[in-house]
């Protein structure tokens, strides 16, 4: 499922619509404070716009995010061999103090020869 320009546009429209619903809700609350009315609930049009925008954004994000991975780890591990599983490149260190110790030891042994 590659993300197309249309999916990105749909997501943009959804996010803009959510922001508009949030602004409308804040404006409604401000209006109620000015007119000294009690807040009971948001108008139905703001609720519908917020919920519809949420679903539009979720639809667009599903296509933009790309392919989903399987939740079970066994599915990914079935295709790997034991040697690949035990190979941890993040723990391989090539620059360590043994390198400098070896150079000093070689220089000392050459001095005694």
Automatic annotation (TrEMBL):
Compartments in which it is found: Endoplasmic reticulum membrane; Golgi apparatus membrane; Early endosome membrane
Highest taxon of the lineage: Eukaryota
TM regions (residue ranges): 48-65
Molecular function GO labels: inorganic cation transmembrane transporter activity
Keyword tags: Endoplasmic reticulum, Endosome, Golgi apparatus, Magnesium, Membrane, Transmembrane, Transmembrane helix, Transport
GO CC entries: early endosome membrane; EMC complex; Golgi membrane; plasma membrane
Membrane topology listed for this record: Multi-pass membrane protein
Quaternary context: Component of the ER membrane protein complex (EMC).
Family: Belongs to the membrane magnesium transporter (TC 1.A.67) family.
Function: Part of the endoplasmic reticulum membrane protein complex (EMC) that enables the energy-independent insertion into endoplasmic reticulum membranes of newly synthesized membrane proteins. May be involved in Mg(2+) transport.
PANTHER family registered for this protein in UniProt: ER MEMBRANE PROTEIN COMPLEX SUBUNIT 5 (PTHR21181:SF7), PTHR21181
Identification of the protein by name: Membrane magnesium transporter
Lineage, top ranks: Eukaryota, Metazoa, Ecdysozoa, Arthropoda, Hexapoda
């Amino acid at each position: 499922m590659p993300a197309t320009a249309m999916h990105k546009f749909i997501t943009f429209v959804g996010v803009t619509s959510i922001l508009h619903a949030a602004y409308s809700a804040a404006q409604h609350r401000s209006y109620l404070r000015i007119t000294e009315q009690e807040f009971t609930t948001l108008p139905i049009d703001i609720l519908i716009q917020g919920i519809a925008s949420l679903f539009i954004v979720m639809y667009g994000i599903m296509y933009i995010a790309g392919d989903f991975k399987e939740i079970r780890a066994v599915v990914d591990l079935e295709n790997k061999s034991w040697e690949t599983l035990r190979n941890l490149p993040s723990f391989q260190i090539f620059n360590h103090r043994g390198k400098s110790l070896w150079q000093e030891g070689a220089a000392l042994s050459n001095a005694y020869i």
